[in-house]
Specification:
Endonuclease III, domain 1, alpha+beta
């Protein structure tokens, strides 16, 4: 059943017709989802925020973040003019933090020039790749632009019996899918495919309730569990770090945010990229001061996309403070609580301030 071309596939409009009515009956109520799917979305900004948040993040995680975000920054203008620290604080804990910067940069461009009027304009916005631009085009503006994310690729690969990597056929799949969007509504069909992939056609398929089960080639061939083919996993680099909370004169030492990198825009604790010895003072990185109190807690594993950290948390109260380096600051407990931090650093903050 190895299918690699698109020329012999049956028409998408007919095959996907049952999906449109299924979606109308079963779609989840989501705070960014419009009630009327036959018109352009009443708030394209809500679609933009939700799509950036949903990149590599599950719906159940995104919903409370989206609601807090929209309550604090309800319009393009409020986001474009917001302090960067507020933006990152609202994103705190959601992961893939560059998305927050991209979202604000996109809002700034839209605030200055208005919403783009074609796909090239959407693709020129910061943080919008082919999928996100197409999702915004179809859901917000009703343009028949197929949005292919992991869910969509999985649904189409199983439906059409594509045994090879469906991402390598992205252009052909977009061409095949476009007439169905035009026939059944771009917003409706785009979200229906996403919904099916998130619920019934997930990695572990629930074929018995699928509205497309009668036309699914992989189900007919008994190959649902092995389509699409698994992509090779990227190698994860493991490191051991000592994460150090230092306190002196009632203040805490923190690293200022970097402008680029994995945790861009976030404050963090000082750390050492080496195992912590049995002597906690081995984590000291500034000579010439004394620690009057030290404490460690049980460590944990912090996992990023391509990095796994074995974290040993350490608290040190110093006899006296030392001058902060250029990229560091001494802050009060109140300031510390308000700073945007990644999950790893939030966890140590909770341990330190919880005592």
């Amino acid at each position: 059943m190895r299918r690699e071309g698109t020329e012999k596939r049956p028409g998408a409009s007919d095959i996907l017709a049952p999906l449109a009515s299924w979606f109308e009956a079963h779609r989840r109520v989501l705070p960014w989802r419009a009630a009327d799917l036959d018109r352009p979305h009443p708030d394209p900004y809500a679609v933009l925020v939700s799509e950036l948040m949903l990149q590599q993040t599950q719906v159940v995680t995104v919903v409370p973040y989206f609601e807090r975000w929209m309550a604090s920054l309800p319009t393009i203008r409020t986001l474009a003019e917001a302090p960067e620290q507020q933006v990152h604080k609202l994103w705190e804990g959601l992961g893939y933090y560059r998305r927050a910067g991209f979202l604000q940069a996109a809002a700034s461009a839209i605030h200055e020039h208005g919403w783009p009027t074609d796909m090239d304009g959407l693709l020129a916005l910061p943080g919008l790749g082919p999928y996100t631009a197409a999702a915004l085009a179809s859901i917000a503006f009703q343009w028949p632009e197929p949005a292919l994310d992991g869910n969509a690729f999985r649904v189409l690969a199983r439906l059409l019996g594509i045994e090879v990597d469906p991402k390598k056929q992205a252009n052909g799949l977009r061409t095949w899918l476009r007439p169905a969007l035009a026939a059944h509504g771009p917003s409706r069909m785009t979200q229906a495919i996403m919904e099916l992939g998130a619920t019934h056609c997930a990695k572990k398929a629930r074929c018995e309730a699928c509205p497309l089960r009668s036309v699914c080639l992989s189900l007919a061939a008994g190959m649902v569990d092995c389509i699409p083919s698994a992509a090779p996993r990227a190698k994860v680099h493991s490191v051991e770090i000592a994460l150090v909370a230092m306190k002196a004169d009632g203040l805490y030492l923190v690293n200022a945010p970097a402008s680029t990198g994995l945790l861009a825009g976030l404050w963090s604790w000082p750390f050492r990229l080496e195992p912590l010895s049995e002597n906690p003072r081995a984590a000291e990185s500034v000579p010439g001061y004394a620690a009057t109190q030290t404490r460690t807690w049980k460590g944990w594993t912090q996992v990023y996309s391509h990095r796994r950290e074995q974290v040993t948390p350490l608290f040190m109260e110093l006899e006296r403070a030392f001058p902060a380096q250029e990229n560091q600051r001494w802050v009060s407990a109140e300031e510390l609580q308000a700073l945007p931090m990644g999950k790893r650093d939030q966890r140590l903050r909770e341990l330190v301030l919880g005592d």
